[in-house]
User: Which sequence fits this backbone?
């Protein structure tokens, strides 16, 4: 794979119209290829898609040209695309009666069904450990699992300004363009800024303010309502590959990015990051991450996965194609990774999400900082659940036990109760409340907790519900009122119960 000069966006509108006319969209691809071949393509396996595009329909032509990156007869391309303009602008090259794509153009469906296109270097459409090939320094990858994860966890609300740090091929800037008046995108790699320009133009989005530089250097002194970043978070020996290696020791790049965010966020602004962090022998990982949270910010940090150092090294050696090199060269590179981890006392690496929110309460010394491990499936997009998480933290921060007992609550949508015990037993061993939305949490509750949650419809304050439960169970109502607020607080914090504002109460 070689890097070439990039296309000009001069006629991107005409190219976009031609792609849409041929149904070169996410839905169109699924219809043409079928689910198995479509999924295989996401794994960089092309044989099923080649078999599905043996016809000469316009969509067959475009899939072979842009996604499979095969030569296509010029006559077939000219019947679908404005060939002279595409060649002149650099999207395509023509030689010997055949046409080839200069860049990868991949259909992508926006959150409201928009037909978008992500533009990246050839052979770099899918990130991760797929072993795409021997990436060169400075190449720009397209959309992968990390990209879609970050897009899904971002809080989407109308904002005046948004910043995408380390924009890559521009997918986060593209999402932000739908709800931000002004979008700024930065990257240390100037090619990435050019690809972002192409992605926005070909997707029919407004241009972004593109700036070259590392981390927050290009936007010194400026603040934003939303900041997102899928940074080069890989903890590696050296900075061989710009798209993934941070170039700082250990997890210092992610730490620096997060710590500096407090000065870049406006009041009530959100920042979302993907990150890797070290698990060291002399420090709990939760304490390590707590130290990253900047003053004036609330935080919710979720560790999604942990790998030991051998798994981690092998993952990224495959990503860069090093597993295909000579055995001695591969062993030397592997050894260098393990030397790096041994020197820093690293025993494992965590991966997850970091969300910050600038708040007056945090600035006053009362931050809400939640750091947890949650490796289980979640429902994407998670942005709405993240926004309500912080709203619940705001509520709980201001409620003492008496206020909780005076509050009105409703059971969150799609929460179900499961009873676990031996078949035929009169009483279950325990009761589990389970969410089918958002984080999809599950929590054990006792009989009081289950009964309380089951009758929360907003009509009665919590204290009166507990009094009724005490009467039914022959419990002391005073003791129940003393012991239950902490359980209520946990059910609210984890999203099983939703507090009602005074206007939403039906009585009581």
Assistant:
């Amino acid at each position: 794979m070689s890097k070439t000069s990039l296309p000009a966006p001069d006629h991107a509108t005409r190219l976009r119209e031609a792609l849409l006319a041929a149904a070169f969209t996410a839905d169109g691809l699924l219809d043409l290829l079928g689910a198995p071949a479509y999924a295989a393509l996401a794994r960089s396996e092309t044989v099923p898609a080649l078999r599905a595009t043996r016809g000469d329909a316009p969509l067959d032509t475009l899939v072979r040209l842009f996604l499979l990156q095969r030569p296509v007869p010029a006559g077939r391309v000219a019947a679908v695309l404005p060939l002279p303009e595409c060649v002149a602008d650099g999207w395509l090259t023509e030689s010997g009666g055949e046409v080839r794509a200069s860049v990868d153009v991949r259909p992508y469906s926006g959150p409201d069904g928009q037909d978008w296109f992500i533009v990246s270097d050839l052979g770099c459409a899918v990130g991760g450990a797929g072993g795409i090939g021997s990436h060169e320094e400075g190449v720009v990858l397209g959309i992968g699992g990390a990209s879609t994860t970050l897009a899904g966890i971002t809080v989407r609300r109308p904002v005046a300004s948004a910043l995408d740090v380390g924009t890559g091929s521009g997918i986060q800037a593209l999402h932000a363009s739908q709800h931000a008046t002004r979008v700024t995108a930065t990257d240390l790699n100037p090619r990435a800024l050019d690809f972002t320009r192409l992605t926005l133009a070909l997707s029919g989005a407004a241009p972004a303010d593109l700036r070259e530089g590392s981390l927050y250097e290009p936007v010194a002194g400026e603040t934003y309502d939303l900041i997102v970043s899928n940074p080069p978070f890989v903890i590696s020996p050296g900075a061989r590959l710009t798209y993934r290696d941070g170039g700082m020791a250990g997890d210092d790049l992610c730490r620096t990015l997060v710590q500096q965010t407090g000065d870049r966020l406006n009041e009530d602004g959100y920042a979302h990051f993907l990150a890797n962090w070290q698990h060291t022998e002399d420090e709990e990982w939760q304490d390590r991450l707590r130290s990253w949270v900047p003053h004036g910010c609330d935080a919710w940090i979720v560790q999604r996965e942990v790998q030991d150092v051998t798994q981690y090294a092998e993952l990224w050696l495959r990503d860069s194609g090093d597993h295909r090199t000579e055995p001695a060269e591969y062993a030397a590179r592997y050894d260098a990774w393990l030397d790096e981890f041994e020197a820093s006392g690293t025993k494992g690496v965590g991966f997850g999400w970091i969300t910050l929110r600038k708040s007056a309460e945090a600035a006053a010394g009362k931050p809400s900082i939640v750091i947890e491990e949650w490796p289980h499936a979640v429902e994407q997009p998670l942005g709405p659940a993240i926004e309500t998480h912080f709203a619940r933290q705001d509520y709980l921060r201001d409620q003492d036990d008496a206020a909780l007992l005076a509050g009105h609550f409703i059971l969150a949508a799609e929460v179900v109760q499961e009873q676990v015990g031996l078949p035929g037993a009169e009483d279950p061993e325990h009761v589990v409340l389970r969410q089918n939305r958002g984080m999809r949490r599950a929590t054990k509750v006792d009989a009081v907790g289950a009964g309380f949650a089951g009758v929360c419809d907003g009509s009665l304050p919590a204290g009166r519900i507990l009094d009724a439960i005490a009467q039914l169970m022959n419990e002391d109502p005073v003791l129940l009122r003393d012991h239950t607020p902490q359980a209520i607080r946990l059910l609210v914090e984890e999203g099983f119960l939703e507090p009602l504002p005074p206007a939403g109460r039906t009585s009581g």
Remarks:
- The CA atoms of residues 160 and 181 lie 5 Å apart.
- The radius of gyration is 26 Å.
- The longest helix spans residues 327-344.
